[in-house]
Design brief:
Distance between the termini: 10 Å
Bound molecules: 2-phosphoglycolic acid
Largest sheet: 8 strands, parallel
Number of helices: 9
Amino acid sequence: MNKIMMANLKMNLNKEEMDNYKKVIENSGINDFIICPSNIFLSTMISSSYTLCAQDAYYEDKGAFTGQTSFYQLSTLGINYSLIGHSERRHVFYEDNNVISLKMQSCVRNNITPVLCVGETKEERENGKTNFVVEEQLKTALSGISMSELTVAYEPVWAIGTGLVPTLEEIDEVHLYIKKYLSSLNINSKVLYGGSVKSDNIKEITNISSVDGVLIGGASNNPENLINMYKLIN
Ligand code: PGA
């Protein structure tokens, strides 16, 4: 099975750059990418050449929530995937496990497949708390919902946008821990790795059998770079 490749474009590209991104990916003939643009570009990015995924949305379906976009609204646009609990949501926007749980519930209610992001801080890793933190994040995100399948992105906070990457053994260990924990809840999982994935490490990371794919931030902002990375592993 091909490894999953998700591009998290964060808040980086403007309209013209997004139009070009779409054109380049469509012309590549590769249909496997999952692309996460800002919500404002989701409707213009709709294409049969790749899968679209939101980066985040709000958990209430509708109402007086100025500035927010709901998972319900995204579902009416035909969006079927969303990242949930990305480290930047947790740390820049102070989303706690409780908010993330409400977002998971909203995804389930609106038929949106969540890609749940988990990961430890540098301090938590140094204190040997990685598995504990990740398990807590999974446990609270899953409270109040029932799922038989889940895609998780393991993204150590200290590896995002820093150029730092855990060792291959460390990645494997956490991925196996996540799979084992979810399997104990009768949930089949796919686990993606994210955090400073780029062309010079994507091959060795995706060679790990517990890595079902990658969530790429910075290195995915250039569509040609994304295509080159795809070619390196396929
Ligand atoms: P990065 O970001 O690849 O730039 O480290 C990954 C992410 O935040 O999903």
